[in-house]
Write a structure and sequence with these properties.
Helix content: under 10%
Number of domains: 1
Distance between the termini: 11 Å
CATH architecture: Single Sheet
Number of helices: 0
Shape: globular
Strand order of the largest sheet: 2-1-3
CATH class: Mainly Beta
Strand content: 25-35%
Order of helices and strands: EEE
Largest sheet: 3 strands, antiparallel
Radius of gyration: 11 Å
């Protein structure tokens, strides 16, 4: 796993688990605007 510098004021890419829609937000966004599914932080590895 690589180290990622977390800057709270910086927008982070979030990706929808189901449809792949990507949005940039400063904090955890609402459910996906396209399909309503959960969004994940793309800088956090999936195990």
């Amino acid at each position: 796993m690589r180290d990622v510098t977390q800057t709270p004021d910086e927008e982070t890419p979030y990706e929808c688990f189901d449809c792949g829609n990507v949005v940039f937000a400063e904090d955890n966004p609402e459910p996906c605007s396209n399909c309503g599914s959960e969004m994940r932080n793309r800088q956090t590895p999936i195990e």
